[in-house]
Fold this protein.
Amino acid sequence: MHPNRARARALVGTAVAAVCLTVVSSAWAHAEITPPVTKSKTLQLFTLAVPTEKEGLTTTKVELTPPGGFGIDSFAPAAGWKRQLQQTGSGENAVIQKVTWSGGSVPTGEDSVFQFLASPNSSKTYMFTVRQTYSDGSVVDWSGPESSDTPAPTIDAMSSLGGGSSSTLAIIALVVAGIGVLLAGVALATRGGSRPVA
C-alpha cells in the first residue's frame, strides 16, 4: 500500500475513533444535538438527546428553541411523546420558534431522543435552548456556556466540509448513525418499550 494512502487511512480511523468517543461520552452527560458539524444550506437529519440525570425521577417534557436561521422542516415520530409547535407563518413560509414534546417518561440513565430534518441558513455556530422537565416538576435549562454544568447544545455549520473525501465523510456519518442506533436500542431494551419509528 502506498505510504500516503496508509497514512490517510490511519488518520480516518483516528478521526472516526475520536467521533465515537465524543458521541458516547457526551451523549450521557449533556443535552446534545448531532451531528455537531454540518453543511450550511443543506437539509439533513439532526438528533436531540436529553439525558435523565436525577435519581429516581423521569423526564416528562422537553422543549427545544432553535436559533434564528436554523430552519426545521419536519419531524420523525417519537414513540410515547406528543409534539406541539409554536410557529409563525404557514405552509412553506412556516418558521418553527419552539417545539415541545410531552407525555413521555424516560428514567434515570436514559436519554430522551428526538429527530428532525432541518437546514442551517448560514455558516456559523448555532446555539439552541433546551428546557427539560422532570416528574417532580423540577426544570433544567440547557442554555448555559460550554463550561457550565448545563451547557446549551451547539452545532457548527460550514459552507464546505473540506479536508476529506465524500467516502470519508460517509464512513464517519455511518459510524455516528450506528452509535445513535445502538444507544436507542440499549434504551429500548432497558425500558422494554415499543420501538420508535425513525
Q: What stands out?
A: The longest strand covers residues 95-107. The domain at 31-159 is CATH 2.60.40.2230 (Immunoglobulin-like). The chain is about 25% helix and 40% strand.
